[in-house]
Amino acid sequence: MDFEPTLSPRFIAYVRDYLLDREIDPAPVFYKCGIPSKNSEDYDIPIPVHRVALLLELAAQVSDNPRMGMNMGEQYHYEAGSLLIMAVLAAPNVAAGLKCLNQYDKYVDTGLTTTFNFDSPTAQFSTRIIAPENVKLDQLNEYLMTFLVRTLNIATRKHMPLEQVSLRHKNDRNAKALEAFFGAPVKFSQASNKLYFDRSYLQQPFLSSNSLLFDVLSNALDTYFSPSAGASEFVDRVSREIIRCGSDESLSADNIALRLAISPRTLRRRLAEEDHSFQEAKNLAQEKRAKYYLGHTKMSLSEISFELGYSEMSAFSRAFRTWMGVTPQAYREGVKEVFQA
Fold this sequence. Notes:
Helix content: 40-55%
CATH class of the largest domain: Alpha Beta
Low-confidence stretches: none
CATH superfamily of the largest domain: H-NOX domain
Shape: globular
CATH topology of the largest domain: H-NOX domain
């Protein structure tokens, strides 16, 4: 299975509600994005990131609102929220809520990676959207960060003590409005969407906290997203988790097992049952990332080689030829021919 970043189909409900609130028919917008316009309850297939991004950009156009992503986050309909959002709001405090989001969102939204650093005086929580290079992510970036901050503000009834907000996109036309909302400087063209805030806020209790509900929902998420759940092969789950680690985290079996909430011994046993080793899972992850970069971005071969951790491009070329039987350049040209046919 090739790696295709996706987002939750709940985004249909979010954009639908935003448009309906303004008496705009969402069906034409969904149609242009190749997304069915029927009720979101009947649509449970994950949506490719590029379609969700296009959905938000078109919704901004038809509503004539360049701040659409920010406004959608500010006016989020919590009655349309997912099981994960309910679990986050039931957590005891900010730290527990963000850790819950970090633990489970990778299963709900494979096109998002979240990381956090709560050990320094200035705490950090970041999210990065995995998308082809030419996909416009302005509205989606602003929605995600605005929604997260508003959710924390509502749950704590305290304004989040932000010191800085980073956004990945270059367009800063909404800078003043965003800075007014966040109450902090906003920097654009950054490596990831990131919140910087006072570490003391992590212990701020959630007024929406419900310990019984949090335990029930956490157990439900554990059961639903456990490595044994679903029909996909375990090696594919492991390789996807390796992909989500990127180049910033250890790729040891112990680290991946921890992220999957299983023991290293169980991880190796489950892989062995499918006649795979952990090294083979790592190779599969590299293959998927390489194919994605070659087929969906304009990164040079040397940039892809570096991103995948190869010290020399020749080593990357040899590895790719072993996986696919052709050179990286030949594979890229083949993909272009398919899309131009």
